[in-house]
Specification:
This protein is α/β, with parallel strands linked by helices. Helices cover 48% and strands 15% of the residues. It has a domain of 153 residues: Isoleucyl-tRNA Synthetase, Domain 1 (Orthogonal Bundle), CATH 1.10.730.10. It is elongated, with a radius of gyration of 26 Å. The structure holds zinc ion.
Length: 513
């Protein structure tokens, strides 16, 4: 079973911030989850390095465009390393492999008569790097996203016959049973796309005449490929398509999920599928867009000074907590608000009080009553089965629907269940009256907790393994998780064997005041 997931190929006019991190961590969690479920996963991220905005930003920094993108691209690689992102490949649109492939696709479309030359005069927003229609401007005649007036530009450009694809796209998007169905999520945004599609499609320009910093159009050296078209093609470049027809990686196509923020959904759900269909290739199976978020109620901006970097998140919370908090704080899909106070509160509630507290209290009791060994006892599976139900049903359902904030809620519910059971059983009282019962209780807590760690792994790959070891559980967590998800019955007696020695738990999540 193959599974191909992509983040956007990030545009290099900005350093990586929490917006990029949000999408990339979410994709990483999904990739890790699918690997546990036995999928052969290809996870792509990368950087989009051409276009007028890059030239301007390079100039501002006193660099050549190439020097500038080399440096900026490195910053993204560093950020993903910092956040423990498990991407399979990192594509740069200035990579030789990509340049060839983008030219190949444009040539293919040209040969099929889907590209023609036309003189065009229209409003152009440099911020968006795209032509913009008057009806899409705000009341001041400015671009909604950039709050600047677009400029009238006149150019002779190559156009792609996007207008020909309206029917095909509508059919594939609307019919869930279509064998080449294109699923757009969430449903509200899919409806917006469908509404806009029904109004009809204009052909789009796919080249620039006055811009050198781009990939040359193979059939006209005076033009470069429009940066957006170039960037989208990188999703197939990375898996060796279509230049290397026998490359085994091409089996990953079509992509299972293209993940992105909502502002670029149109490119991914309309323009990109049309280009692919035009070139005789399969369109992506699913395009998933999440919302925008504000920081403490304000739009994130350098001027306001509220930009949150991946480094700042890691410095404050540590890598795993930063990963968990970033994607768990707000619903995945709609717009939301992220604030340091919200992150701190969630850290204290979910991690210090629930996960961290369970780790340490369980550890202390086993150290105190059984000298740090897992007691030998027959497994009373009642609690284990309740936890298993939350994880197998709620967690799995939400995760498979990419509702990662709800899946993290399910993890918290499962942890709370154990913490509550401890309160109900009062092991400290049992220690004085019923040692057999005490053994049974502690044994069932630890097995249930181990089970949660298997599902926590995609969010917190380091901490989950650390607690796994603290708990005296056997084997490599990741391997056990794969085996468990394939054969849950094999593990009905749990993961920490009787007699296993626990490690002494350090404080994993010190409370933030
Ligand atoms: Zn704009």
């Amino acid at each position: 079973m193959k599974f191909y997931i992509t983040t956007p190929i990030y545009y290099l006019n900005d350093v990586p911030h929490i917006g990029h991190s949000y999408t990339t961590i979410a994709a990483d969690i999904m990739a890790r989850w699918k690997r546990l479920k036995g999928y052969d996963v290809f996870f792509l991220t990368g950087t989009d390095e051409h276009g007028a905005k890059i030239v301007a930003a390079a100039k501002e920094n006193g660099k050549s465009p190439q020097e500038f993108v080399d440096e900026m691209s490195e910053k993204f690689k560093e950020a993903w390393k910092l956040l423990n992102i498990s991407n399979t490949d990192f594509i740069r649109t200035t990579d030789e492999r990509h340049v060839k492939n983008a030219q190949n696709i444009i040539q293919l479309l040209f040969d099929k008569g889907l590209i023609y030359k036309k003189k065009y005069t229209a409003l152009y927003c440099v911020g968006c790097e795209k032509f913009i229609l008057e009806r899409d401007l705000d009341e001041n005649g400015c671009c909604h996203d950039h709050k600047t007036k677009p400029q009238l530009q006149s150019e002779e450009n190559y156009f792609f016959k996007l207008s020909q694809f309206q029917e095909t796209l509508l059919e594939r998007i609307l019919d869930a049973n279509h064998k080449e169905h294109i699923e757009i999520q969430p449903i509200e945004r899919r409806n917006e796309i469908v509404g806009k599609l029904k109004l009809g499609l204009d052909d789009i320009s796919v080249s620039r005449a006055a811009l050198d910093w781009g990939i040359p159009v193979p059939f006209d050296e005076n033009h470069t490929i429009y940066v957006w078209v170039d960037a989208l093609v990188s999703y197939i470049t990375a898996i060796g398509y279509p230049i290397e027809k026998n490359n085994p990686l091409t089996a990953y196509w079509p992509a299972d999920i293209h993940l992105m923020a909502k502002d670029i959904l149109w490119f991914h759900s309309v323009i990109w599928p049309a280009i692919l269909i035009g070139a005789g290739l399969a369109a992506p199976k699913k395009v998933y867009s999440h919302g925008f978020f504000t920081i403490d109620g304000d739009k994130m901006s350098k001027t306001i000074g509220n930009v949150i970097s991946p480094q700042a998140l890691v410095d404050k919370f540590g890598v795993d907590a930063a990963r968990y908090l970033t994607v768990s704080l707000i619903p995945f899909g709609p717009d939301g608000d992220i604030s340091w106070s919200g992150l701190n509160l969630k850290y204290n509630t979910d991690l210090a009080n629930n996960l961290g507290n369970l780790t340490s209290r369980l550890n202390k009791m086993l150290q105190k009553y059984f000298e740090g060994n897992i007691p030998s006892v027959k497994h009373n599976a009642a609690l284990f089965e309740k936890v298993e139900q939350i994880l197998n049903e709620d967690f799995t359902k939400e995760m498979d629907a990419f509702q990662i904030h709800k899946a993290s809620d399910a993890l918290q519910r499962a942890l709370t269940l154990i913490n509550q059971q401890i309160e109900n059983d009062a092991p400290w009282a049992l220690a004085k009256t019923d040692m057999e019962k005490l053994k049974e209780c502690l044994f069932s807590y630890i097995q249930s907790f181990d089970l949660i760690l298997l599902y926590l792994f995609p969010y917190m790959p380091i901490i989950s393994k650390k607690i796994w070891e603290i708990n005296g559980a056997q084997g490599d967590l990741e391997e056990i998780a794969k085996d468990y998800l394939a054969n849950p019955k094999k593990y009905k007696d749990g993961f920490s064997k009787a007699g296993a020695k626990l490690q002494i738990a350090e404080v994993l999540f010190p409370r933030i005041q």
